[in-house]
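User: quick one, sequence for these tokens?
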């Protein structure tokens, strides 16, 4: 199991990536570390974006689970898939639209930069 956190300064997010483990190992870790029960996932999944309320800090806890993280295309595809879920949730939390808003400002540009930031930070860890 490999665990690392990314600090993103603009929206002040700190998603946690938990990789290279089984889903049952992930569930045990989450229960022990954060006191949360993971019941929604599928034990055969290769990746998942999870959101919890951290009761200790009363903040949103964002976790990206990846069964395998390396530079193989199929595993990078799962990473990008899960990072997109993360980006959408962060933008929803902060009120940034993914489509043009009333001021005709494209939210997809913000999403693209955020996605690029997370992806590059993860690549540094592989």
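Assistant:
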């Amino acid at each position: 199991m490999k665990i690392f956190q990314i600090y993103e300064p603009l929206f002040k997010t700190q998603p946690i990536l938990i990789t290279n483990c089984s889903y049952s190992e992930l569930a045990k870790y989450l229960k022990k570390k954060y006191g949360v029960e993971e019941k929604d996932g599928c034990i055969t999944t290769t990746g998942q974006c999870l959101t919890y309320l951290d009761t200790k800090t009363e903040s949103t806890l964002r976790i990206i689970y990846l069964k395998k993280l390396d530079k193989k295309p199929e595993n990078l595809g799962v990473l990008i898939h899960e990072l997109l879920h993360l980006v959408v949730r962060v933008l929803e939390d902060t009120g940034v639209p993914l489509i043009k808003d009333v001021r005709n400002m494209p939210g997809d540009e913000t999403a693209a930069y955020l996605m690029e930031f997370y992806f590059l930070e993860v690549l540094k860890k592989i």
